Automatic annotation (TrEMBL):
Span of domain SAM-dependent MTase RsmB/NOP-type: 24-296
PANTHER family: 28S RRNA (CYTOSINE(4447)-C(5))-METHYLTRANSFERASE-RELATED (PTHR22807:SF30), NOP2 YEAST -RELATED NOL1/NOP2/FMU SUN DOMAIN-CONTAINING (PTHR22807)
Binding site for S-adenosyl-L-methionine: C111, A112, A113, P114, G115, G116, K117, D135, D180
Single GO biological process annotation from the record: RNA processing
Regions of compositional bias (Basic and acidic residues) in chain numbering: 322-338
Protein's name according to its UniProt entry: RsmF rRNA methyltransferase first C-terminal domain-containing protein
Molecular functions per Gene Ontology: RNA binding; RNA methyltransferase activity; S-adenosylmethionine-dependent methyltransferase activity
Active site annotation, chain numbering: C233
Region named Disordered: 316-358
Native source organism of the sequence: Paenibacillus agri
InterPro entries per UniProt: Methyltr_RsmF_N, MeTrfase_RsmB-F_NOP2_cat, MeTrfase_RsmB-F_NOP2_dom, Nol1_Nop2_Fmu_2, Nop2p, RCMT, RsmB/NOL1/NOP2-like_CS, RsmF_methylt_CI
Length: 503
């Protein structure tokens, strides 16, 4: 490590660690560990291990996580572009394992960008339930949205909000909440020297104030009996045990579920020994802190959030009378959101707008009827001419700023539906009328990822009985979806988006 550790930091760590300090200090001479986490939304751990050219050693605290060998470049493999794994620092895989997410849960990831832990939560949900991923900084939500799209998440919503506003819109709503808090980042000094340069003696106190506010909002949004995991990547007790002690004093219905002192997790300091620490001189990973907090199940104040809506989009059935009506009302509600491209109703009181939007939904349904089976289900949300399928009725978002109100399906232009890239990445080949598998071994997958047109004889297409050969093809890499192509007369026109290409 080239950057000099700050003197005050060294002094504080000596006081904290006593005779363990030298062992801790020696870790700064070592190379940080790298890891990948298998995206079980798309592939099983066993299947990835069988396919992967990377030497993979299991990470003890995460059953889907593996250390990568020094010098490995997991981002430079077609499987990365097919969303088969997420590249993640090994210790950063621990907090979600402690959250205990099961399919069907309503989960809030309050400080989510760029999405490492959100993609891990989504894999645990397996498409059932709801994931709201939020980050306060709008620039950072772009990477968050892109990662959720790359990993094929269907039931996610991305917000760019202040946690207080989310708590006000969703009081007592979530079964599980993760706060991967903004922090002084001391645990990342070995990996990210910028963190060293930004650190000042006052930095921990500044973050501690922020963390306490975020914890208070999370307490409001959590359901009675729910679980909250708080994590940081710093060593400072002020931001760790200190933030938790302040929280517990103000929230008597919460207690710590003890995890410190089990397996790889060292105990937290003082009375909060049940919280957990990962120390770089004790495990193969960077420094982390985690606290699992559970609400005792007593009644909590909080208004009901209406998550019921008669409007769900089913693409297989032709829209019945009445079904189309409710589609219109969903669209009107969507207009109350503050999403990109939302247009106000015109002088006709919104009737023209509503019928334009009904036409857009109908264009999607026509396309989907030919292209997709089984039908994806959810609440349709139209922002301008962009169509999403949301796990929540749009009204439930209560005007919160949605970067992605759901799974992006595509755009309707001049009455024609154009499928979006995130629709493809979340599909399995058997859900598409036409699919094609390219090999990662012979260069054709990379040619596709570079945006090249490919010569593909018709025998290579997998076409469902009754579907024409010509049209959109779900392009897969060794059987795992990566994007769209359009096939005609032996040529595959490349639809892989420019901003995602292999460089
Ligand atoms: C440690 S990072 C999160 C990393 C992320 N959980 C992951 O696994 O990829 C903390 C995040 O908190 C965000 N943040 C900072 N202040 C916040 C606040 N008051 N509310 C919500 N997010 C905040 C930052 O923009 C940053 O992206």
């Amino acid at each position: 490590m080239a950057a000099q550790l700050p003197g005050t930091f060294i002094q504080r760590m000596k006081e904290l660690l006593g005779n363990e300090y030298q062992q801790f200090a020696d870790t700064y001479k070592e190379t940080p560990y790298g890891g990948i986490r298998v995206n079980t939304l798309k592939i099983t751990v066993e299947a990835l291990r069988a396919l992967s050219p990377l030497g993979l050693e299991p990470i003890p605290w995460c059953p889907t996580g593996f250390y990568t060998e020094e010098g490995a470049r997991p981002g430079k493999h077609p499987y990365y572009h097919a969303g088969l794994y997420y590249i993640q620092e090994p210790s950063a895989m621990a907090p979600v394992e402690l959250l205990g997410v099961v399919p069907g849960d309503r989960v809030l990831d309050l400080c989510a960008a760029p999405g490492g832990k959100s993609t891990q939560i989504a894999a645990k949900l397996q498409g059932a339930g709801l994931l709201i991923s939020n980050d306060l900084h709008s620039e950072r939500t772009k990477a968050l949205a892109k990662n959720l799209e790359l990993y094929g998440v269907r039931n996610g919503i991305v917000l760019n909000e202040n946690p207080e506003r989310i708590a006000a819109a969703f009081p007592g709503f979530f079964d599980k909440i993760l706060i991967d808090a903004p922090c002084s980042g001391e645990g990342m000094f070995r990996k990210d020297e910028d963190m060293v340069r930004q650190w000042e003696p006052e930095t921990p106190a500044k973050y501690a104030d922020m963390q306490r506010e975020i914890l208070n909002s999370a307490a409001m949004a959590l359901a009675s009996g729910g679980t909250l995991v708080y994590s940081t990547c710093t060593f400072s007790p002020e931001e760790n045990e200190g933030s938790i002690a302040t929280f517990l004093a103000a929230h008597p219905h919460f207690s710590v579920v003890p995890v410190g002192g089990t397996g790889s997790f060292a105990p937290g300091f003082g009375e909060l020994a049940g919280t957990a620490r990962l120390w770089p001189h004790k495990v193969k990973g960077e420094g982390h802190f985690m606290a699992v907090l559970r609400h005792d199940g007593t009644a909590k104040p909080g208004a009901e959030v209406d998550t019921t809506d008669d409007v769900t989009l089913s693409v297989a059935a032709r829209p019945r009378k009445g079904k189309a009506e409710s589609g219109k009302s969903a669209v009107r509600r969507a207009e109350n959101g503050r999403g990109k491209g939302g247009r106000p109703a015109g002088r006709d009181g919104g009737r023209g707008q509503a019928s334009a939007e009904e036409a857009a939904l109908s264009a999607y349904r026509d396309w989907a009827r030919e292209q997709l089976s089984p039908e994806p289900e959810g609440h349709p949300v139209l922002f301008g001419d962009h169509l999403y399928l949301s796990p929540l009725p749009q009204a439930a978002l209560n005007g919160l700023k949605a970067v992605r109100p759901g799974w992006y399906l595509g755009q309707v232009r001049n009455g024609r539906f154009i499928p979006g890239h995130p629709l493809a990445t979340a599909l399995r080949p058997e859900e598409s009328s036409r699919s094609l598998s390219l090999s990662s071994a012979n260069g054709e997958a990379v040619s596709y990822l570079k945006g090249e047109t490919l010569a593909i004889p018709e025998e290579r297409l997998v076409v469902k009985p009754g579907s024409p050969l010509k049209g959109y093809v779900l392009v897969c890499i060794d059987g795992y979806s990566a994007g769209w192509g359009k096939w005609q007369d032996g040529m595959l026109k490349n639809e892989y988006p420019a901003g995602w290409r292999w460089t």
